TrEMBL record, chains A, B:
It comes from Streptomyces longwoodensis. Residues 6-73 form the HTH gntR-type domain. The keyword DNA-binding applies. This is GntR family transcriptional regulator. GO terms for molecular function: DNA binding; DNA-binding transcription factor activity. The keyword DNA-binding applies.
Length: 233, 233
DNA sequence: TGTGACAAATAAGTCTGACTTTTTGGCTCC
DNA sequence: GGAGCCAAAAAGTCAGACTTATTTGTCACA
């Protein structure tokens, strides 16, 4: 489950990536390839490969005669799963979770509406199964098992939408849900109303009722926003 | 405006990236670093750097004794601006524009609602300016100028939302709008109703009316979906 | 004094060749 | 026919020399 353990350059990224995203080197800081290679005790070839990856994430820019410059966070590829993981592991994890939850609240209802139109029979079955699993594990301090079904549910919705951009957010949603269960303060048992909503969404998708699926999912995400105290006055 | 002209490895990516995203090498195809280096007439070091970048985009996976394997498109980092550009330049540009337009339709209304709450005075002014610019260029076959204001408008909305994930979609939306003006069939003048909606969104944001800003923006994105014949029966 | 061109320093970029490591596929041997 | 061993293959790593572009500083000239 680690990030990119393969290869020496991966090891370098495992520590340099989190450092940069955590703001250890403020925007504009200049790093030197040779110094970094010394610090991590790797050859320049390996160090250069690592820098190339950071560059493709727009975390740094490499310029001749200057060095490797750290870019302002506004330039970062914040949709890169690796960057997301690095940031979630860092200090501004709460802030990151909020951003991602807002994104969820925008995307998931629309995805559910599309899923109601495009979902295959297998996907409908999987959805119902997930919902039932959530019901079954919603009582008795079985949060870990509940989480598995919850993540699977949302992943199926995003996949069944038929939109590849939505589908790729499955990992992000899973990360958010995991973060909520682990880190955030949560009741020993999930909110019964939320469980019911999931069952109803599965119903609506099965019946092809796009408007209802969208509205119900919007209720779910509103709940998620409220948990993080993100709501309109 | 090119992609990554800097460096030899960038040149390699400029042709290898589009080839992979265009499906020239089907998922599972195996490429050999040495052969690629020969083909592009670069050293192995440079070729390795290029492969590392492709790897970080999850376009390929490099394994010892096997080679560089092309991954199925479901694994690609489709939110990477570079990947988006490559795919938009390729054969399935229409499909890509549809995916992105659907994403827009999900994100922009929510972003507009947030902008109504968080927009600064400067951002409100910029928004009004953009809207006025759109009105001024909405007649007389001035699509190029209109497009500039249109792109700026949506970028301000996304930025003013205060959510970094939304803000980073500014480039994507700009790409979609450009694509619509250039490639797709469009009337010589933009739809007057759409122009009015933009002005009203600017108003709503200025007045802090989140619900109205969201609803109006939803109308705009519904229009965008209809242009591409994406609509519910 | 300011401005231009030129020269030197610097750090990334590139190439080459040798070596290491891991994985796989086949082969032998039981 | 299966377990284990061996060799080939390809990526991975390293070290060193060289190239190129960019910046900075200096010096001469207006």
């Amino acid at each position: 489950m680690s990030t990119s353990g393969r290869g020496l350059h991966g090891r370098v990224l495992d520590t340099l990536g989190p450092e940069i995203t955590a703001g250890v080197y403020p925007a504009g800081s200049v790093l030197l390839t040779d110094e970094l290679a010394q610090r991590f005790d790797v050859s320049r070839s390996v160090m250069r490969e690592a820098v190339r990856v950071l560059e493709s994430m727009h975390l740094v820019a490499s310029r001749r005669r200057v060095g490797v410059t750290v870019l302002p966070s506004a330039e970062w590829n914040v949709y890169d799963p690796q960057v997301i993981r690095w940031r979630l592991a860092g200090a501004d994890r709460p802030r990151q979770l909020r951003s991602l939850t807002v994104l969820r609240s925008a995307v998931e209802p629309v995805a559910a509406g599309l899923a109601a139109r495009h979902a295959t029979a297998e996907q409908c079955a999987a959805l119902t199964e997930c919902a039932l699993g959530m019901v079954a594990t919603s009582r008795g301090h079985r949060l870990e098992e509940y989480l598995v079904h919850d993540m699977a549910f949302h992943r199926v919705i995003l996949t069944a939408s038929g939109n590849e951009m939505f589908a790729r957010l499955g990992d992000v949603v899973a990360e958010v849900l995991t973060g909520r269960t682990q880190h955030e303060v949560m009741f020993p048992d999930p909110d019964p109303a939320a469980v019911t909503l999931h069952v109803q969404v599965a119903e609506a998708v099965r019946e092809g009722d796009a408007a209802r699926a969208e509205a119900l999912t919007r209720e779910i995400t509103v709940g998620a926003l409220q948990e993080l105290d993100i709501l309109a006055p």
